[in-house]
Design a protein that fits this description.
about 240 residues; alpha+beta; Arc Repressor Mutant, subunit A; Alpha-Beta Plaits; 3 domains; 4-stranded antiparallel β-sheet; 3-stranded antiparallel β-sheet; 8 helices; 9 strands; about 45% helix
């Protein structure tokens, strides 16, 4: 989801939410389940779970679905154990990809991801072959809400954020991993609506792609993103109109 222009990233999320709500819910439930499995089912004591639940609520997931996922993770209900996996590879035009997965079947997932990279890209890479091109960052997006940039900037600066980008319809806040939760909480405490908050892989440098090359990179991105086991896809592509 990163490596594109900021608007492309947010637009893609909105389109996925509108057109494929069921798939989005599945991914959110997986994240809730893993977060609760690792850190327990108390949202107040488990920052990762609290973030996953907040994102689920932002996507209008019914509360019953959220509670059921937590109970399955904590053993109150029978559930499935998911593994967290990350794959690195190259797409058309040398574009780098990071693919994050949550799966109950590692062999199925690696076979699917390898197949997609072979068919639409240049193949999977070794661990570490791509990750060095990215930084792990906290990304928080907020609807414009009629707020002024200076007002948002004052809140996040005091909380330790790294950057603020302002677009016509939204703000995007960037932070380090360490300050991510502090920044998110500061925005919530200020009464601001958060559209999405997550830790993402952000490309240090981008590769411009356009025309046919852009279409090929988009195809690989979309095929990976549509995979049931894939949670997030990141690339260092910069799409030109």
């Amino acid at each position: 989801m990163s490596g594109h222009s900021k608007w492309s990233t947010i637009k893609r999320k909105k389109e996925a939410l509108d057109q494929k709500r069921g798939k989005i819910f599945t991914k959110l439930i997986k994240e809730i389940t893993v977060a609760a499995k690792i850190g327990g089912g108390d949202v107040d004591a488990n920052p990762r779970l609290r973030l996953a639940v907040d994102n689920a609520k932002s996507a209008n997931m019914p509360l019953d679905n959220i509670e059921r996922a937590i109970k399955k993770a904590t053993g109150e209900l029978e559930g499935v154990t998911f593994l967290e996996l990350m794959y690195e590879g190259y797409g058309p035009s040398g574009v780098a990809f990071i693919v994050e997965c949550l799966t109950d079947n590692k062999n199925r997932t690696v076979a699917e991801v390898r197949h997609l990279f072979t068919k639409y890209g240049n193949g999977l890479g070794e661990t570490g072959s791509v990750a060095w091109m990215f930084d792990r960052k906290g990304i928080i997006t907020l609807p414009n809400q009629g707020k002024e940039e200076d007002e948002i900037f004052e809140i996040i600066l005091e909380a330790g954020a790294d950057d603020l980008q302002t677009e016509e319809d939204f703000f995007e806040v960037t932070s380090s991993v360490d300050s991510f939760e502090t920044v998110r909480k500061a925005l919530v405490d200020a009464g601001l609506e958060i559209e999405n908050a997550s830790l993402q892989w952000i490309a240090k440098n981008t590769i411009e792609v356009e025309g046919e090359a852009s279409e090929k990179v988009e195809r690989l991105f979309d095929m990976l993103d549509d995979s049931d086991d894939v949670q997030n896809v990141y690339s260092n592509a910069d799409f030109k109109e």
